Every structure is written in C-alpha cells, then in structure tokens.
Amino acid sequence: MTDLEETFSERTLGFSIPSRDARGRLVRLDSTVDEILSAHAYPPPIANLLAEALVLTALIGSLFKDDGSQVTMQAQTETGAVNLFVCDYRAGALRGYVDFDADALAELGANPTLYALFGKAYLALTFDMTDGRGRSQGIVPLEGDSLARACEGYFVQSEQLPTLIRTSVTNGPQGSRAAGMLVQHLADGEEGRERLHVRLDHPEWEHVAVMAGSLRHDELLDPALSLEAIVWRLFHEEEEVRVTRGAPVTRGCRCTAEHYQSVLTRFPESERQEMRDEDGMIVVDCAFCSRKFPIAA
Q1: Which of 36, 55, 93, 267 has the lowest tally of Cβ within 10 angstroms?
Q2: Phi, psi dihedrals of residue 216, rounded to the nearest 5°
C-alpha cells in the first residue's frame, strides 16, 4: 500500500493470517475519543476507563460483516464507585458514557484498580444482528486488571475463541487518544473435529499470540506509525497477510428531538403530565452527549 492509502486513525483495520487460522482488528482513536469524553467533565480514572471501553467496543463491533448490526458493552454495579458504563458501536458510529459516584471515586486515590472502581460486577456484551440472527447476549464476571482482560475472558468463556487484546490510552493537555488491537484464533468448524479450546496445545495460535503480544503501548499510539505498519512489524514473516480497511469511526450519538418525541408518545398522558416542567415542556437529557431536548409532548 502507498503512504496515501495507509490508515493512521479514526478507522478500523482488519487483517487475517490464513495459514495460522487467525484474524485481527486494529483501531486508533484521536478526535473521536476526545469528542466523546469532552461531553462530560470526567476525572482521569473515569476518562481512562471510558476511553478503553470505546476502543474495545470499536474492535469488537468491527468484527461484524453487516453494517447494520450493533454491539453494546455495559457493566452495572451497586457496590463500586462506577454505577454504570455503556458503549455501543454500529457501522462506525461509536458512543459511550459513565455514571459514577464522585465522592466514592475520590476515596480511591489517583489510580484505582478495576475492582476498586466496580467491586463485584459483570460485563455484558449484547449483539443486535441484522442478518437474521437477532439479539444475543453474553455475560461474564468483570475480572482482571483491565477491561481488555475481561473481554478476553468473554471470548474464551462464551465464544470458545482464544483471543488476545492490547489497548493503550493517554490523556493530556493536547487531548485524549486511545488505540487497541484484537487478535483471535478461529476455531475448527469441520464436523467430527475437536474444537480448538479442548486441545492440549495449538501451536498456530501460540505463535500468533507471541508475535501479537510483542506489540508495545507506544507503538499503538504512535501517530507516525500507520496501522498497516503495525501489522507488517508483527507478521511480515508470514507467507500471507490479508489487510482490509474498515469503516471510518466517528462519534455516533443518535439522539434527536424526533426520536424522543416518539418515545414519549408511548407513555400515558398521566405520566407525561408528571414529566412536564412549569413551561409545559418535557426536557430530555441525553446521557451520551449531554444535549438537552425540550419536547412539547
């Protein structure tokens, strides 16, 4: 590929290694993650958490082959400083927010662990497919030292797909940037053969995992290093690597006055009356982008 065709940010990049039965995705978010985070004055631990969640949601969502499908990642707890976080991705449109207890967060110090933020919690991934498969959901314990580790656990437990995920986040005076890579070994699909996860060893995946695991955090975020160049550095010795540019990634909050008007019509008039303010308006506050919509419902 020429330099003009290389992908540096705001777009996913897919790749596959046929001889190793492996596939992967890369994404780097600059202005997109900064725009999403700027909708709320998140303290650093929450901004880092949401930035990583946005990268993971984009990586997982980019695995879809059809543009209309959506993945939603969320976790909710009653014992941690974070009450709820939600992210979703559909056809390159990405959004997310975190609801947290500021007083509880302040007691945790500057660099709280994932367990300190959530306590005992569960990670849910919901897939809304437009190819006839409908909706499905997987729920796993929110364990490990990062959301990336929890997502690896999801793929192993729920999908039986060995998966390696790397993420990197930075927040500073010049804004926020986040990036990530997801690599998976595809399970054997032929009837009568053992699925990959029940074997004692799988050397093809072990090789891919070692090479992918050598990726450094600074390489993921290096603005001078294209996503194609990262794939080349990791896997240039393979006999064939297929690379596909994915959809551009943008902030994708889908809130509109028309949407909220439609939602409010589903409530009985008695409930809508209780929602109205002194001017007779129902003001809807979008949690994702912090916009307020006064609706004359």
Answers
A1: 267
A2: -90, 155
Q: Which amino acid is at 270?
A: S
Closest by Cα among 114, 205, 201 to 161: 205
Amino acid identity at 111: N
Helices then strands, each counted (H, E), the chain: 10, 13
Q: What pLDDT digit, counting tens, does each position of 31-77 carry?
A: 999 999 999 999 999 999 999 999 999 999 999 887 789 999 999 88
- The answer to whether 26 and 12 have CB atoms below 8 angstroms apart is yes
Please state the length of the chain.
297
Say if residues 266 and 282 touch (Cβ distance below 8 Å). no
Q: Which pTM value belongs to this model?
A: 0.89
DSSP 3-state percent helix, strand, coil across the chain (nearest 5): 30, 30, 35
In 173-288, at which residue ranges do the beta strands (DSSP E only) sit? Answer: 175-185, 242-248, 250-251, 282-285
